[in-house]
Amino acid sequence: MTPFDSVLVANRGEIALRILASARAAGHRTVAVYSEADAAAPHVAAADQAVLIGPGPAAESYLDPARILEAAALTGARAIHPGYGFLSENAEFARAVEAAGLVWIGPPPAAMALMASKSAAKRHMQAVGVPCLPGFSADAATDAQLTAAAAEIGVPLMVKASAGGGGRGMRLVESLSALPEALRSARSEAKSAFGDDALILEKALLNPRHVEVQVFSDRHGRHLHLGERDCSVQRRHQKVVEEAPCPVLSDALRKAMGNAAIAAAQSIDYVGAGTVEFLLEENGQFHFLEMNTRLQVEHPVTEAVTGLDLVDLQLRVAAGEPLPLTQAEVRFDGHAIEVRLYAEDPAAGFLPSTGRIETWRPPEGAGIRVDAGLREGQVISPLYDPMLAKLVAHGPDRATALRRLRRALDSTVLFGLTHNRDYLRRVLDSSAFVAAAATTSLLDELPPAPDAAVPAPLLAGAAVLQFLADQSRYAAGSGACPSLVGWTGTRDVSTGYDYGSTDSEPRSVQVTQRDTSCFRVSVEGVEHGVALLASLAPGRVRLRIDAVEETLDYCCGVDGRIDLQWRGDGCTLVNRLALAVTAQAGSGEGSVIAPMHGHVVSLSVAVGEPVAQGAAVAVMEAMKMEHRLSAAIAGTVRAIHVTPGAQVATGDIVLEIGPD
After folding, report:
1. What percent of the chain has pLDDT over 90?
2. What is the dihedral sign for C-alpha 265, 271, 277, 283?
3. Does domain 134-203 correspond to CATH entry 3.30.565.10?
4. Which CATH architecture does the domain made up of 6-105 adopt?
5. Do 646 and 631 form a contact (C-beta atoms < 8 A)?
6. Where is the Biotin carboxylation domain (predicted)?
7. At what angle do helices 65-75 and 91-99 cross, to 10 degrees?
8. I need a labelling partner for 508 at 20 to 30 A (CA). Which of 249, 386, 532, 657 fits?
9. Where are the beta strands (DSSP E) in 120-221?
10. How far apart are CA 485 and CA 28, in angstroms?
């Protein structure tokens, strides 16, 4: 293999930034690609060169092999790293890269093609003796074949897309009567995500652990594993928390799973980084799930416990170098845990969210690593995966790693869009996770907690910060000195707020300024003293509330909203007195509203048709996932405002239902 001096990263966001860092450290010239939606994204400026490859939709940019190859030709890049997601497991793209005379930083296309088909992969693994679950797999299986096989396998069973991964095109079927809809929706999602609607069936294990083994192979016949990761904490089959090592594996079981993973890699003449995924039963039986022929999102936990740079190893292996260590030389140090910060709303069924990042302050500290592709002012688009960042904590033992990760989440500040930070804290605090007893059903049993009452001292601090922000805005518009706005020589003047969280009843707050930095604040008739001690950074202050000094992060909006983070807890407060509430025409209780930006996949009702409360009336797609929209009331469809394929924004009316 000819060494290369330049690497084009065919990806975006934190993925691209991660790969660019190792490529630069290895001395390579780096090239980024970007869509029109990502023109101002951090990965663009991080590379030595960057090329615009098309419009925002991934199908017209990041998923277009021709545009990637054109960018390589334009910049003279000699190697292409696909990252993970997009084209990373596309064997045809890998072949096209090699046909163009470029180095493909990934496994051989033949191995990728075999593992890309879950049906072919499972048949192959059964043939070489790797344990597999009972199921049905056939090339281009029809619904009739799948239905007949399902009756033999029995429920519960999993419907899975034969291509791709990431939980897309997967449906759990607990009753055979639900199979037809599961097949339809899984096919639709698989076609959209992977361009292939082929499906397979597997017997479902309802409470297993998801344990995967990191393998690495070179072109000189050396295959080794770098330990395992426990990825059991999942939602909709997408990983949310990962850790290494798996806290329940015995030495014997760890060796058996490692040997099975190496046997899988050897059997397909694998090269590079790969992951063999297993489902682990409580009795110690494990079953092959799939093999990911790429770098994994969660690779940082393996890097933390092994001290190895997996991207650097990929670059070296792609250049023809042998792996620099043997299996006996692989060392493991301590424990690492990773959480994925998503742009999603846990309280709204984890629907993806979009918005402008007003504040981004990642955590720091011993044993903490943050992989992110964010900057303040960046707009999070509905076009791509909702993952925003990964927070990784490493420590000498699991308890230390967990404690460090909790603190890291407490000090992560992200204002401007809805995200899952507080929910991640709840997951880490759950008794099952603390006891290392989490299975793939944990998040099904851990719904988001209802909003807690906002403490009165926090309301007092929030009102002072909003008062100061309003004071500054007024002064800027009037030319007055900010510290003199609102002063009178005859009496105290108080400013009133009706403050609460977005879903709670407002609570009366009165702010009286005593001097430039001291305030008396009445919260529902109880007085608190608030003093502004220091501004530590934009949007971060040190306050003394009553007798206690606190650091508080905040972001004030012009509409009476203020985002706050205090003692690790986050909330959004609304001053109802500042809101001009307007009713949207036609948006009554029978309106079906788009809960996010995206496009309409299908409509299942027509004007004049009766519908039952809770009935599915439309399907939307956003951030590569399908979402069903349901009728809030029983009635008759009065109007439909969209057609299949139409783009909709958050809050748009999809259709209207009138009560019977």
Report:
1. 68
2. positive
3. no
4. 3-Layer(aba) Sandwich (3.40)
5. no
6. 3-448
7. 30
8. 532
9. 135-136, 157-161, 170-173, 199-203, 209-217
10. 57
Could you report the per-residue pLDDT of 366-422, keeping only the tens digit for each? 999 999 999 999 999 889 999 999 999 999 999 999 999 999 999 999 999 999 999
- Residue burial 350-387, b: 16+ Cβ < 10 Å; e: rest: bbbbbbebbbbbbbeeebbbbbbbbeeebebbbbbbbb
Cα separations (Å) of 518 from 28, 493, 525, 556? Answer: 56, 14, 19, 19
* CATH number of this structure's domain 456-578: 3.30.700.30
Q: Is residue 613 within 8 Å of residue 632, measured between CB atoms?
A: yes
Residue labelled with tokens 């090329």: 51
- Neighbouring C-alpha atoms within 13 Å toward the C-beta of 557: 19
Listed in order, the ranges of the chain carrying CATH 3.30.1490.20 are 134-203
In the chain, the percentage of residues whose pLDDT exceeds 70 is 93
Taken in order 581, 584, 589, 591, is the CA torsion positive or negative? negative
Residues 6+ apart with CB under 8 A from 84: 11, 15, 294, 295, 296, 297
DSSP 115-134: HHSHHHHHHHHHHTT--B-S
CA 267, 110, 203, 253 torsion-angle sign? positive
Which pTM value belongs to this model?
0.84
- Whether 486 shows a pLDDT value over 80: the answer reads no
DSSP state of 374: -
Q: In the numeric block, which tokens belong to residue 322?
A: 């042998």
- CATH architecture of the domain with residue range 591-659: Beta Barrel (2.40)
**Average pLDDT for 604-631:** 82
**Tokens representing 163?**
């291509």
| Distance of alpha carbon 470 from alpha carbon 482, whole angstroms | 9
Residues of the chain with CATH 2.40.50.100: 591-659
Whether the predicted pLDDT of 587 surpasses 50: no
Q: What is the DSSP letter of 102?
A: P
Per-residue pLDDT tens over the stretch 538-584:
999 999 999 999 999 999 986 778 999 999 999 988 887 765 332 23
Residue 560: predicted pLDDT: 77
Question: Which tokens go with 340?
Answer: 């994925």
User: In the chain, which segments carry CATH 3.40.50.20?
Assistant: 6-105
Residue 475: what pLDDT? 63
Torsion sign over Cα 550, 551, 553, 556: positive
The CA distance from 421 to 581, in Å, is 29
> Over the stretch 271-293, which tens digit does the pLDDT of each residue have?
999 999 999 999 999 999 999 99
Domain 209-445 carries which CATH code?
A: 3.30.470.20
**Rounded mean pLDDT, 209-235:** 97
